[in-house]
Amino acid sequence: MSKILVVEDEAAIRRVLIKILSEENDSYQLSEAEDGLKAMELLKKEDFDLVICDIKMPKMDGVEVLQASKKIKPEIPFVMISGHGDLETAVHTMRYGAFDYISKPPDLNRLLNTVRNALDRNALVSENKRLKKKVSKNYQMIGESKEISFIIEIIEKVAPTEARVMITGPNGTGKELVAHWIHEKSERSKKPMIEVNCAAIPSELIESELFGHIKGAFTSAVKDRAGKFEAANGGTLFLDEIGDMSLSAQAKVLRALQENKISRVGSDKDISVNVRVIAATNKDLKKEIAAGAFREDLYHRLAVILIDVPSLNQRRDDIPLLIEHFAKKIAEEQGSVPKVFTEKAVKLLQEYDWTGNVRELRNVVERLIILGGVEISEEEVKLFARK
């Protein structure tokens, strides 16, 4: 149900506009204001999906209403109504953020099309904001321990820059979460973040996966294919488990970082790319370098900023917050009321040895919620947590 505010000092025109809109769609919630001051009172109190606003009005004209509204609620689309003498002013209102302008007397079809388009655009903007908020919520770092607070502080400083980041830590600690949060808080957040699990791709295919290939480059290359570097152009490329990447692929990645250029497998043509690389590994890359399994020059290119994500055993103080977070999230997924963990149950979970880290804790919380009662007790933790 769309809420529309009609701002027009001439009562006859205002009534016509209200009538046209109500006949077009009886679900529209229509409000009216006879001058700019009344319009601003309503805009401050209510949320509207669209404002149709005259330009020449007493007390406060339409241009002033538009500019004042954009300061408090910039997302509301404005359709300006202009008389013949206001046409030049109406065009200027587009620079101030108006969606469109319509000349008096308004053409019926033009008015209704503009209203539909403005409402559609507003709905799309609202949906994008909702989805972005949902994405950001999915990549929150939960915890108040000094270890997590330190990582959050680094992310806040590093994210707005173009610095490459190397994330280290055991499996299940949340390295991917850190990478996503850096991307979400960066200037590249409107562009894609492309993930590559280097450990999951066979060594003979990793170069094709990263850089693409041309038709005929190898037996199964039946057509040209872009790689992950091209897909991430303008955004972020997350190289997870980079310690498992082959040395030949490492050499090509190094070149891409040095020259901002890649070439597809089987081609000698250079393709320019603008990619921020974030890498992660659970391996000790210094040992891998000493063993000849990882290029030292690539390490120094990637590890401009180092973020070491601690194991869950190193941040036990965060376990109660994580349990509460997972309980709420699982309840949302299942469409149920979040279950409560007793104080003794939480304390017992804090004492466990979490070799699988946060990922293991999440699985245990879900298991307890499914198998336990309304309130998860210490006895149920002993019974189900280690199954």
UniProtKB/TrEMBL annotation:
InterPro entries: AAA+_ATPase, AAA_lid_NorR, CheY-like_superfamily, P-loop_NTPase, Sig_transdc_resp-reg_receiver, Sigma_54_int, Sigma_54_int_dom_ATP-bd_2
Matching Gene3D superfamilies: 1.10.8.60, 3.40.50.2300, P-loop containing nucleotide triphosphate hydrolases
Stretches assigned to the Sigma-54 factor interaction domain: 141-370
GO MF terms held by the record: ATP binding
Entry-linked SMART domains: AAA, REC
Keywords, ordered alphabetically: ATP-binding, Nucleotide-binding, Phosphoprotein, Transcription, Transcription regulation, Two-component regulatory system
Modified residues (4-aspartylphosphate): 54
UniProt GO BP: phosphorelay signal transduction system; regulation of DNA-templated transcription
Domain of life: Bacteria
Domain Response regulatory span(s) in chain numbering: 3-119
Protein name as it appears in the record: Putative two component sigma-54 specific transcriptional regulator
Species: Galbibacter marinus
Lineage: Bacteria, Pseudomonadati, Bacteroidota, Flavobacteriia, Flavobacteriales
